[in-house]
Description:
This is YhfH family protein. With 44 residues, the protein is mainly alpha-helical. The chain contains 2 helices and no strands.
Amino acid sequence: MLMSPVEFYRNLPKKECPECGQHMEEQAESYMMECERCLAKKEE
């Protein structure tokens, strides 16, 4: 039986920063892979 789209998205794991492992808040228009803190470190 197929899962409903709502149920599918509800069961996805939280997005996690690959650098530090911190959970990131999802944003519909964002494709960022690292968290804000790790991005700021890279810019220095």
